[in-house]
Amino acid sequence: MIRKLYLSGLAALGLAISSQATPVLVVWDNAGHVQTINDNQVGDSASGSGQIVWVGSMGVWTLDVSVGVTGGTTNQPILDLSGSSTSSSAGILNVWYGDNNFGPSIGSLLATIGGTLSTGASLEYRADYNTANDPIGSSVILMDNTYTGNPFSGSDSSSINQNGPFALVQHVILTHTGAGTSSYDAMLSVPEASSTAILMGFGLIGLGLVKRRNKASRA
To answer: Which domain, by its residues, includes 168?
Structure first.
C-alpha cells in the first residue's frame, strides 16, 4: 500500500523515470551487515525502473522503509532518498543511493535534506557527483553536513558543467546512542528555475511516505 501511494504520487507530479540509468541502494551497519539492492532485482519491492524500495532488518536496526527514486531527465535528474529507521540500542547505519548515465548537465546542482532524529542521535548527509559514472563511487563532494537538531534541515548548491556521463550519489550516516527512531528525506537534483514546485512536491511525497510508515508502525 505504501509503495503504491508513493509511486502514484510520482505519476501525479509528471516525473519521468530514466530507463537508461542503473540505480543501486546499499545499506550497511557498524557490525558488518551489508545489503545491496539493485533496481528490479531481489529485495526491491518497487516494480518500476528507477525506483528501489526496501524494508528489512540488520543487527540492532529495523528499516521501516528505505526508498531511492530517480526522476527527471538525463540532463536534469532528480534523486530522492528517504527512510525511517529504528534501533533497539546504540548503532550506526549507512544508507547509500546512487544512479548514473546522466548528462550533459549545465547549471546548478542542488542538495536538500530534512527529517527528525531520535534523542541523542546524529545524521551525516553527503551528496556528490561522480565523473567516473560509478553509482557506488564518490569523487566531487557537493555537501557533507552533520545534523543533531530535531527536526533538522539543510541545503547546499554548486555549479555543474558536465558533458557526461556522470553519476549522482547520496549517502546518509545515522548514529543512534540508544534505542529510537529517526527519519529523513534527501534530494539531489539539477533543476530548472521553473522546476521548483515539482521539486518541493517530490520531497513532500518522500516525507509523506515516511510519516505514513511511522503511523502504521505505531498502530
So the answer is: 2-218
**Helix-helix angle 2-13:196-218, to 10 degrees:** 170
What is the number of residues in the chain?
A: 219
**Phi then psi for 124, rounded to 5 degrees?**
-105, 130
If phi over 0 gives left and psi between -120 and 50 gives alpha, with beta otherwise, what is residue 38? beta
- Min mean pLDDT across 15-19, 67-71, 104-108, 119-123 is at 15-19
How many domains is the chain built from?
1
**What's the whole-model pTM score?**
0.80
C-alpha torsion sign, points 135, 138, 126, 36: positive
Condensed to tens digits (0 to 9), the pLDDT of residues 99-123 reads: 999 999 999 999 999 999 999 999 9
Q: Go through 158-186 and write b for each residue having 16 or more CB atoms within 10 A of its CB, e for each that does not.
A: eebebeebbbbbbbbbbbbeeebbbbbbb
DSSP helix/strand/coil, 216: helix
β 122-130/166-176 pair status: antiparallel
